[in-house]
């Protein structure tokens, strides 16, 4: 009985300590990398369902719409695939199925999935619809079509809180020039009328959050797989008029190198759920989930490296860590100290790799695996990477996406085993390519 109690206590502590780490490699309860890009989230009872694109084959072509379940938004279990290719149809493995979103039709006791349905060259620009009697399905494919005779590429669904639970299609139309919101029929099978148009807005990757009677439309602009500063618009009615655009994050960070996929409202905040697309290796695209706070009166991303959510209270907590400046480390070889006002303390270490390295000493650990965020600047148009070694041990490789030019700073996470007490962490040793400029690291104890 005592052993059972201890095990239960450990499980409870671990569950309470579970954190969200944007940009890390997220794995499911079986240890496999989560494949659910272009996310759609549905809550049924106390269970969250995460639908997304399986890109494990590193292709834009359709492999499956995956379905994961969770009770805490952190620990996810993969279920059966919700939708799989059907040869000879618009959802064959030679076609495109993206951004799956699922809503529940109460009148029909039916789950209805909508998705971007397209040909491999994105020439069809349609929506697809499938239905099921249980959240993960499998779903029965109904059809693909052009809503109200017009194009639809990046899309989402929004289910309003009116008595009829009216659902609206949010979609990029007319060669992505105009953004449209259209009403679905009572079965959620088709589009019956156009509600509003944001002409010339060039928006995609949409989502809507409603707070205190105000609709907040969140979307990116169109720049292919490359990130851009995502925006928000407001209106008191889905019919508009819609406000001019405003930023949900500082423009220079390009939404922390991500694109909106879904925006999940909770009691006091929402979760911005984005994708960090890597087109050359789509299966390695990472998930960028951040708190979306209205503390300033408008939605703003809280760029927390490590954070947790309390679903019972609808609140979040951003973990605090200990900062170590790179320029305070031991610099060797061709590495040099770079100066710029954008760096923490005005300095960073550049020319890392190709003989240059830096070792940050006296990093305090707790004798366990800990999240460490690397703050860096990579002005290239392509990704870089850096090697990381703890106390002279084996190196791990950490990817560093480009930061958009100049000395814009982003962070990427790595989990390192730190011994209790003092540690030395070396960056870019024995590396034959250049790493990004290293500004600082932040070491966290939350795990």
From TrEMBL:
Q: Which positions fall inside the CBM6 domain?
A: 322-444
**Which Pfam families does this entry report, sorted A to Z?**
CBM13-like (PF22704), Glyco_hydro_43 (PF04616)
Q: Which InterPro entries match?
A: CBM13-like (IPR055240), CBM6 (IPR005084), Galactose-bd-like_sf (IPR008979), Glyco_hydro_43 (IPR006710), Glyco_hydro_beta-prop_sf (IPR023296)
Q: GO biological process: what's one of them?
A: carbohydrate metabolic process
Q: Which domain of life is it from?
A: Eukaryota
The protein's matches in CDD domains, at most eight in alphabetical order, are given as: CBM35_galactosidase-like, GH43_Pc3Gal43A-like
**Which molecular-function annotation in GO is an example for this chain?**
carbohydrate binding
Q: Does the UniProt entry include the keyword Amino-acid biosynthesis?
A: no
List UniProt keywords, sorted A-Z: Glycosidase, Hydrolase, Signal
Tell me if Secreted is a UniProt keyword of this record. no
Signal sequence span per UniProt?
Answer: 1-17
Cross-referenced PANTHER family, in alphabetical order?
A: GLYCOSYL HYDROLASE 43 FAMILY MEMBER, GLYCOSYL HYDROLASE FAMILY PROTEIN 43
Q: What is this protein called?
A: CBM6 domain-containing protein
Q: What is the lineage of its organism?
A: Eukaryota, Fungi, Dikarya, Basidiomycota, Agaricomycotina
